[in-house]
Amino acid sequence: MAHPNASLPMTGSSLTEFGLVDLDKVDPTINLDIRYATADNFLGQVLYPVARALLHPTVAQQLKQVQMDLLSQGLSLRVYDAYRPLSVQRKMWEFLPDDRYIADPQQGSRHNRACAVDVTLLDSGTGFALDMGTAFDDFSEHSHTHYPGIPPLARANRLFLQSIMQKYGFTGLATEWWHFDAQNWQSYPILDIPLDSN
To answer: Of 91, 118, 101, whose CA–CA distance to 30 is shortest?
Structure first.
């Protein structure tokens, strides 16, 4: 059932009042590389005061299932982004108002609902990231999930990432190989609460 205010930004004093959980507490084996807590991102500036991956509990549990499956195959997840406050979404849109890559803050992003993750795959033995053909946040046609002009190994890695995420209920985004939405994201409210709130 949809939240009664699912289309309106929700503010509050804490993230826990909306039930969000830290992914590293749900599964500490998942590697976090929260790019927007650093200047290593497409804006070249720090957007998050802390490096946290927050999600709704059901979404975090789905991601844990993905990770368990990957670990059995010698692989691991790396998470670049999860919950994103709407205020950050507005900054991103001001910098790059292109809805192929950045959701219009008037509608909100699935990230603003704590129902989307940006991920890649690592070799769990070496910790090295698998070749995906482009870097994270490469906003060009080369980052489109089924772009044909990348090396065969990178294409196979993208398709594998898509398949294992879909296996556990996530849906990919055609223009970003790294982005995945959880099921029923529409039922959760858009949030605009800072990441350093409790």
So the answer is: 118
Mean pLDDT of 68-83: 98
Please, which residues bridge with residue 117 across strands? 180
Give phi and psi for 148, each to the nearest 5.
-80, -20
Question: What would the mean pLDDT of 166-176 be, rounded to a whole number?
Answer: 97
Active site residue 176: yes
| Residues comprising the chain, all counted | 198
Q: Dump pLDDT digits (tens) for 101-141.
A: 999 999 999 999 999 999 999 999 999 999 999 999 999 99
Which of 17, 94, 141, 176 is catalytic? The answer is 176
Number of H helices, E strands in the chain: 4, 9
For 80, the enclosing helix (H) or strand (E) is strand 75-81
Residue pointed to by tokens 């927050």: 54
Greatest pairwise CA separation for the chain in angstroms: 48
Cross-strand bridge partners of residue 54: 22
User: Are 142 and 134 within 8 A, CB to CB?
Assistant: yes
